[in-house]
Amino acid sequence: MKREITFAQAINEAMAEEMRRDPSVFLMGEDVGVFGGVFGVSEGLLAEFGEERVRDTPISEAAIVGAGLGAALVGMRPIVEIMFADFVTVAMDQVVNQVAKARYMSGGKARVPLTIRIANGAPGAAAAQHSQSPEAWFMNVPGLKIAIPSTPADAKGLLKTAIRGDDPVLFFEHKMLYSRAGSAPEGEYLIPFGRAAVRREGEDATIIAIGGPVNAALSAAEQLARQSVSVEVIDPRTLVPLDLDALIASVRKTGRAVIVHEAHRRAGPGAEIAALLAEKAIDYLEAPILRVAAANVPIPYNPDLERFVLPTAEDIVEAVMKLIRYEI
Amino acid sequence: MTSLKHHPLDQLLAFYRLMVTIREFELRAAGERKAGLVPGFLHACVGQEATAVGACAALNAEDVITSTHRGHGHLIAKGGDPRFMMAELAGKTSGYCGGKGGSLHLADFDLGVLGANGIVAGGIPMAVGAGLAFQMRREPRVALAFFGDGAVNEGAFHEAANLAGLWKLPVIFFCENNLYGEGTPQHKQAPIRDLSLRAAGYGFPGVIVDGNDVVAVYEITLDAVERARKGDGPTFIEAKTYRQRGHYEGDPMIYRTEEEMAYWRARDPILGFRKRLEEEMEVEPAALDAVDAEVKALLDEAVQFAIHSPAPRPEAALEGVYADDHGGRVF
Q1: I need a surface site. Which of A75, B64, B188, B250 has the fewest CB within 10 A?
Q2: In Å, how far is A325's CA from the nearest CA of chain B?
Q3: What is the distance of C-alpha A292 from the center of its chain?
Q4: CA of B146 to nearest chain A CA: how many angstroms apart?
Q5: How far apart are alpha carbons A244 and A71 in whole angstroms?
Q6: Chain A residues with CB inside 8 Å of B128's CB?
Q7: ipTM value
C-alpha cells in the first residue's frame, strides 16, 4: 500500500515509530518540542512522548551534540537536531573530534548510536548563514556516516536505519523538500545505507544528483527527453557509504556523467565522486565529468542573485547537452 | 585541614597507594618516552595525584568520568590497569585502545571512563550527556567531568554547564586548577582567580578545595555526588593544585620560576599525605615504604608488559572506525 506524505511527515513518522519501538530513542534540539520544530518536523511528538523525550534545548549547538554523544556512549539512541546546517559550525569540535572519532580512538570499543539531523540547503532569501549545504565538509571526516535523502519514502526509511545503527550519522534534510509530498509505503520499512536509487532510467547520460537538487535533475531529464536525449538520474541517498558500484554501472551504460548538488562546486561532494569515477570508470567515459553546483561564493540574499548562484534545471540541461555534443 | 581520623585506615592507605601508583606511572612513562618505548605526547599529572584519587574515591563503579589530556591519574583512580595503560602509551595491541588512541585518548567504558581528550573542554558536554541519560533512566548514577583551569574559558564548558544547570543533571564539574593553561598562567587567561565563581551563572554551587589534600577532595566530592544523586543537580568543584612538571614532557618551562616550583614541591600531595599518615594515624614508615616498593614492582611489570606486547599489524589501522562498515563501502 502506498500513500502520499510530505518529506517532513516522513521524518516525523520515522522518529515517532522509533521512539515507540525503543525507549532509549529521544529527540533534543532548539524548538523541537513546543514549537514542533522550526520547520514543523517534530509536530505532535511532544504530545505523544512528553518533555523528557522531546527536549527543547538552549541555543547551544556544542552542548546539544556533545550531550547527544555522552548519552549515546552510555546506552541511549539520541536524535539531535541542528536547526540550520550553518549552525553546526558551533558544534564542530564535538562532531569532528569527539563524535566521529570516539569509536576509533578507543580501539573500536565505543558505540555511538547518535543521529544528528541537519536542515541544509537554501530556502530562499535566507542569505549566507542560513542556506549552506556543508555535507562535503564531513565526507572528509572518517567515522561519520552521511545520509542525504531526496524523497519522503527515502527520508523515512533512511532515518529509521540511522536511528537503529550503532554509528554516528549526519542526516541532511533539504529545507525545500520538507513540504514536498511523495508516495511512501505504509508501515514499517528500512532503507539500507550505501544503496543508490535510480530515479529515472536512461541511455545517453547519467546525472548523479544529491539531496534537494534531485528534483531539478528529474525536471532537466524531462526537458532533455523532449529533445530526444535519454538521461539516467541516480540519487546516491548516502554519501558515506557511497554506492560507487551503482554509479559506475550507470556511467558504463551512458558514457557521460554530470554531478549535481547544492553544495559549493569547489571540493563539494561532486569533487570526490568525479575523482572516484576518474579512477574507476574512465574507460567508460566518452566526455569529461561535469559538475553543476552552487558557485564558489557565499549564498546571496537577493532572490535573483541567489537563483544565479544555485544550480537550476536549466544549468543541468546545458551541462548534459555539452556532453552530448562533446567530441574527442 | 580535614582530619584523617574520620576515615578508615584501609581507605587512607588505598588513597596513598593509588597516589603513589599515579606518580610512579608518570615518572616511568616519562622515562620510557625518553627511552623510546613511548612515541607520542605525554602530559604528566605529577603534583595533581590527590585530585584524581580523592574525586574518583567518591564515585561508585557504575558512575562515569570524562578526562583530559592530563588523564593518566583519572584512569588509575577509576581502576585502570597500569599494564594496559603503559601498553597503550607504547602503541601496542594490548593497550586500552589497541594502540589507536595513545595517552590522549585512553578510555575504558567498562570502568566508566568515557575517555581522555585531546581537546580542552572537549569531554565536558559528553559528561553532561551521560548525566542526562542517567536522569532519564532514573538511575542513581553520576557523571564527573575532569577539566583544567584552561577549559573554563572554552565555549564547550559554558554550553555544557548551562545545560546541566538548567536540567539539574547529576554531573560534577571538577576543575583541577593547576595554575597554568599550557605555558600561560591562569591569571593571564581569566579575569578571576577563583574559577568556581563561574558556577553562580549556571545556577549551581561552586566550591573550592585544597587540591593537594586527598581527603579534603574526597569529602567535598562526596557532598557533590550526594547532591547529584538526590536530584539537586550539578556542583562545580575547584581544586587548587599545581602541575609540577611541564605542560608536556620536554616542555622547557621558561614561563615559571624555580622559587614557585619549590614552593609547590614543598606542598607535594603525596609527601604531605605520607607525613600525616605517619603523624596522625601512626602508620609505620616501613609500611609505607612497602607500599612504595609494591607499586614500583607493579610498574616494572607494566613496563615489561608493554615492551613484550605485540605491535599492531599495519592493516589494523583500517579497523574499528565504524560498527558497520557496509562491506568496506564507507572507505
Answers
A1: B188
A2: 34
A3: 17
A4: 14
A5: 34
A6: 63, 66-67, 70
A7: 0.97
